[in-house]
Amino acid sequence: MRKLLLASAAIALTAGGALAEDIKMGISLGFTGPLESMSPAMAQGAEMAMKEVSASGKLLGGTTITPVRGDSTCIDAAAATATVERLITSEGVKGIVGGMCSGEAIASVTNVGVPNGVVMISPSATSPALSSADTKGFFFRTSPSDARQGEVMTDIIQEHGVKSVALTYTNNDYGKGLADSFAEAFKAKGGKVTIVAAHDDGKADYAAEVAALAAAGGDALVIAGYVDQGGSGILRGALDSGAFETFVFPDGMVGETLEKNFGKEIDGSFGQMPSSEGAGHDKFLAAAKEAGFDGTSVYSGEAYDAAALMLLAMQAAGSTDPKVYKDKILEIANGPGEKILPGELAKGLELLKEGKAIDYDGATSVTFVNGRENAGTFREIAIKDGKIETVTYR
Q1: Which of 130, 149, 196, 324 stands the most exposed, by the fewest C-beta atoms within 10 Å?
Q2: pTM of the entire structure?
Q3: Domain that holds residue 228
């Protein structure tokens, strides 16, 4: 009888821990390339969520998470595709935070993620093209579409009394999508766009591009580019030549590099980036500070939310299989249920285990629209005394 009881106990223990495992989660970001200065904080945001869930011991009977980084380069679609291929086939990841930039995200999602049935949640790929791409339920993004950013940027510019702008954009999916969205919105509200000109990244000299922008003129220059690449080249050329005094910076230009390389030279300029405010945002900033990175860095909160959503969806589905848990992501993101904020992932996991509903609000007030992307709020910024300051949230 004693042997039977011991055997029964052993079977129960085995069954109770059957789902516990160590899983890998991928992070595909541009650790090199035109946004390399933004990637470290984004990766740390995603890894903070993974660490929080692992430490809780509450995911599927004690499942732990090992993050695996991959360099998408941000602009090289072939390199990004190869990186995601490695993460899926060699590393066996159960989901991926990424891609980072729109063109490489579109390539890696459609060529690798969807065919292999792996969920990818981008914290920062904002092209409107991703709103309607056929991703069969395997792609989401915690950032808002640039269709929305174009409207917000229009409002900010006009509130500054700017009636005409020259517009330059980085020659890729992100730049073109944002430029088109903004130009349409600005013109619809009576603004004048004097020129819409693409620029290529990686050039040593942007004198010709700046000359064309200067010839067209405008009250301000909108630079829809990358702060670690051609966007800064255009900005430096415009400052040195005196072509423009006021600049408008969308999300790809808002980063530490802007302060470090230009400082007070760009005082009076302004812009916007996806961000949030409120209790979730504040809790994320505090947790990031404790973890040793800057939580105000663009898209770091979105990266935390991307990782958290996949892990909570696994708990809701009772499976780490992306083909299974993908169907729970919208349910987790949009509720109804008890709100879950950063630092409360253990609570969310416990509620889901009990069969209760949650509404993941996260660091960026997550609410998905179009079945795949965050509606989003934006942080309006201004450059004062060489520093990026928050004006308000929209």
Answers
A1: 324
A2: 0.88
A3: 147-274+379-393
